[in-house]
Write a structure and sequence with these properties.
The complex is a heterodimer. Chain A is mainly alpha-helical. Chain A is 72% helix and 0% strand. Chain A has one domain. Chain A is globular and about 60 Å long. By secondary structure, chain B is of the alpha/beta class. In chain B, a hairpin with a 2-residue loop joins β8 and β9. The longest helix of chain B has 16 residues. The chains are: A mainly alpha, B alpha/beta. At the A-B interface, α1 and α4 of A face β1, β2, α1, α2 and α3 of B. Chain A: It is a multi-pass membrane protein. Chain A: Its main location: membrane. Chain A: One of its GO terms (molecular function) is ABC-type transporter activity. Chain A: This is ABC transporter permease.
Chain lengths: 275, 296
C-alpha cells in the first residue's frame, strides 16, 4: 500500500462559524450593491405605509389595527427573504458555480447555510425595526416588550423558513428560480393573511390557509402583540394553543430541511457527463 | 517520493455510460502532470472525483491519506475550476479576503493578486471582470490556502499570450516549492512545455502515462508530409499509417510508424512524390496517433 505524504504541520482549522459570518458579510455587501436586496428589505415597509399605516380603527382593548398590519407586512418581508434572499439567490449561486467553489474549499457547507440564515436574521430585523419606526411615526407605538417578543418570533420564522428557500435553491433550475420564487411567494403570503386578514380571503382560499406553515408562524407573530380575542377580531384563525402553531411550523421546517438535503445530494451526484 | 494523491482503479458510470474506467493515477510532490484527452474523455469527471465533488462508482481516491471530502484534505488542496465566479457584487479584493477566511493557513492577499497580475484591479467588482481576469481570479482563489496539491482545469483558456506565459511561470514556481500540480489542457504545446508527466485519457480509460519523450517513443510514429497524386484513402490503407490529413498548403500530413516502408511503396507504385518532409513526432502527433482525434 502506498503511504501518503505526512500531513502538514497542524494549522488550526478555522471554526465554521467564522466562515458563516464571512459568508453573511459578503452576501450583505454584495446584495446591497446589487440593489435587489435593498428592494427586498424596503418593499415590506413601503407596503405597510401604503396599505397599513393609515388604516384607522382599533380592536378590543384599544390595540390599533395598524399595529396588526405592521406585523402582517413584517411577516410578508420575512417570507420574502426566505424565498428570494435565501432560495433564489442560492439557486443563482449554484448556477454560477460559486457553490461548487465553496464545496472544494475548506469551508464546511453548513457555514454557507448558516451565513444565509444570518443574512435572514439581519434583513428581518431591519424590516421589523423599519416597520416599527414607521408605525410610531403614525402614532401606532408598541411596548418594547411586545416588540422584543415579536422579534424572537421573527427570528424563529427565519430559521424555520430558510429550509424552504434551500429546497427551492436545490430543486429548481437556476434560470427558473426567480419565476418559481414568485409563484411560491405571492400565493403563500396572500393565503397566510399577510396581505389581507384570513377572514377576508375568499372561502376556497381561506380553506387552504390552515395547511400552510406560514399561516401558523403568522399566528405566533400576531400573538406576540395581541391577545387571543384581539387576534380573533383581526381575523386570525388559530388552532388554539400557540404550541400547536409552533409544532406545525417545526414539522414543516423539518420536512423542508429533508427536501433541501435530498435536493443538495441530488445536485451533488447529478448524473451529468462532463468531458 | 511519497505521493500527494492516489487514485486507484477509479471508475464513474452515468446511466449506463462509463465516463471514467478503472483509472490509476498517482500525484507526487513537485510534479506537474498534464491530463490530456479529447472532449468527453473523462478529464473533468476525474477532477470532480479527485476534489471530492463526485463519488467514484468503483475504486478509491485518497488525498494526503484522507478522503478528498475531508476538511483537512480540502484545506491543503486548491482548485481552479471552470465557470466558478464569486458573487458579482463583491470586488476582487473582497472575494480573496472572503476565501482567506475559509482556510487555516493563507497567503497574503497582496501576494496572491500580484502572482496573478490582478493587483491593479483589487477594487473592481467580479461582475465587471473580463473572461481572462476571471480566470486569473479563479487561480488566485485556488492559491489562497497555500495548497500542497493544485488542480487546474484548463487554466490558460481565455488568457492572452502574455497571461498564458505568466501563468505557466507561476505554475513552474509552485512546482519548485514541492507542490503537486495536475492540470487539464487541450493545448498540447502547453503540456509539452510545462509538464513533467503526461496522462492521456480516451473514452474514460488511461491510455498513456509518462514523460513526453516516453509517450512519443512508445507510440513510435513519425510525421511525413508530401505531395502526391493519390487519394487519401489509399494512403490510410498502408500498414503503419495512423492518421491522414492535409496541411494548409495542401500536402498530405501523415502519422506513420513506418515512414520508410510507406515511401518505398509509393515509389514502387510509380507515384511522383514532391515537397517531402519527414520529422520526429511531437506530443501532438502521439496524441493523434493514440486517440485518432485532433486536439481541440
Amino acid at each position: 500500500m502506498i503511504e501518503s505524504v505526512p500531513p502538514a504541520p497542524r494549522a488550526r482549522m478555522p471554526w465554521g462559524g467564522t466562515a458563516a459570518v464571512a459568508i453573511f458579510c459578503a452576501e450583505w455587501r454584495s446584495g446591497f450593491r446589487s440593489g435587489w436586496f435593498v428592494a427586498l428589505v424596503t418593499m415590506p415597509m413601503v407596503l405597510f405605509v401604503l396599505f397599513g399605516a393609515t388604516v384607522h380603527g382599533h380592536l378590543r382593548g384599544g390595540l390599533p389595527v395598524a399595529a396588526m398590519l405592521m406585523v402582517s407586512f413584517t411577516c410578508f418581508g420575512v417570507v420574502n427573504q426566505a424565498i428570494f434572499a435565501v432560495g433564489v439567490a442560492a439557486a443563482e449561486q449554484r448556477g454560477s458555480g460559486w457553490l461548487r467553489r465553496l464545496r472544494v474549499s475548506a469551508m464546511p457547507m453548513w457555514s454557507f447555510f448558516g451565513g444565509k440564515v444570518l443574512l435572514g436574521f439581519a434583513a428581518a430585523t431591519v424590516v421589523l425595526a423599519g416597520n416599527a419606526v414607521l408605525a410610531r411615526c403614525v402614532g401606532v407605538g408598541l411596548p418594547l416588550g411586545h416588540l422584543l417578543r415579536l422579534w424572537v418570533v421573527v427570528l424563529f420564522g427565519v430559521v424555520c423558513l430558510a429550509p424552504f428557500g434551500f429546497a427551492l435553491a436545490y430543486w429548481v433550475r437556476p434560470g427558473a428560480a426567480g419565476v418559481i420564487g414568485n409563484l411560491v411567494f405571492l400565493p403563500l403570503s396572500y393565503t397566510s393573511g399577510f396581505m389581507t386578514p384570513v377572514s377576508g380571503l375568499p372561502a376556497p382560499v381561506a380553506a387552504l390557509s390552515p395547511y400552510l406553515p406560514t399561516l401558523h408562524w403568522g399566528n405566533l407573530a400576531w400573538a406576540a402583540i395581541a391577545t387571543q380575542g384581539q387576534a380573533a377580531d383581526f381575523g386570525v384563525r388559530s388552532p388554539g394553543h400557540p404550541w400547536q402553531d409552533v409544532a406545525i411550523v417545526l414539522a414543516w421546517a423539518l420536512a423542508a430541511a429533508v427536501l433541501a438535503t435530498l435536493g443538495w445530494r441530488r445536485d451533488r451526484d447529478r448524473d451529468r457527463i462532463r468531458g | 517520493m511519497k505521493p500527494m494523491a492516489v487514485l486507484c482503479g477509479v471508475s464513474r458510470c452515468f446511466r449506463g455510460t462509463t465516463a471514467v474506467d478503472s483509472v490509476d493515477l498517482v500525484l507526487r510532490p513537485g510534479e506537474i502532470v498534464a491530463l490530456l484527452g479529447p472532449n468527453g474523455a473523462g478529464k473533468s469527471t476525474l477532477f470532480d472525483m479527485l476534489l471530492g465533488l463526485r463519488n467514484p462508482s468503483a475504486g478509491t481516491v485518497s488525498v494526503f491519506g484522507m478522503p478528498p471530502t475531508a476538511r483537512r484534505a480540502r484545506a491543503r488542496m486548491g482548485a481552479m475550476l471552470q465557470d466558478t465566479t464569486g458573487p458579482a457584487g463583491l470586488t476582487v479584493g473582497e472575494t480573496v479576503r472572503l476565501t482567506q477566511r475559509l482556510y487555516p493557513r493563507v497567503a497574503p492577499a497582496g501576494e496572491l493578486l500580484r502572482t496573478v497580475d490582478l493587483d491593479g484591479l483589487t477594487g473592481r467588482r467580479v461582475g465587471e471582470l473580463s473572461g481572462g481576469e476571471r480566470q486569473r481570479l479563479s487561480l488566485a482563489l485556488a492559491l489562497t490556502g497555500r495548497p500542497d496539491l493544485l488542480v487546474l482545469d484548463e487554466p490558460t483558456a481565455a488568457l492572452d499570450v502574455a497571461g498564458r506565459r505568466r501563468l505557466l511561470r507561476a505554475i513552474r514556481r509552485l512546482a519548485a516549492q514541492d507542490r503537486s500540480i495536475l492540470l487539464a489542457t487541450h493545448d498540447l504545446r502547453e503540456a509539452q512545455e510545462v509538464a513533467d508527466r503526461v496522462v492521456v485519457l480516451h473514452h474514460g480509460r488511461k491510455i498513456a502515462d509518462g514523460t513526453t519523450a516516453e509517450i512519443v517513443g512508445a507510440v513510435g510514429v513519425r510525421r511525413v508530409q508530401l505531395r502526391a497524386a493519390i487519394r487519401g484513402e489509399e494512403l490510410a490503407n498502408h500498414g503503419g499509417v495512423r492518421s491522414v490529413s492535409r496541411t494548409p498548403d495542401g500536402r498530405f500530413d501523415l502519422l506513420t510508424t513506418d515512414p520508410e516502408g510507406l515511401l518505398r511503396t509509393l515509389v514502387t507504385a510509380g507515384h511522383r512524390i514532391a515537397d517531402l518532409t519527414v520529422v520526429d513526432a511531437d506530443l501532438e502527433s502521439a496524441f493523434v496517433a493514440l486517440t485518432g482525434e485532433e486536439a481541440a
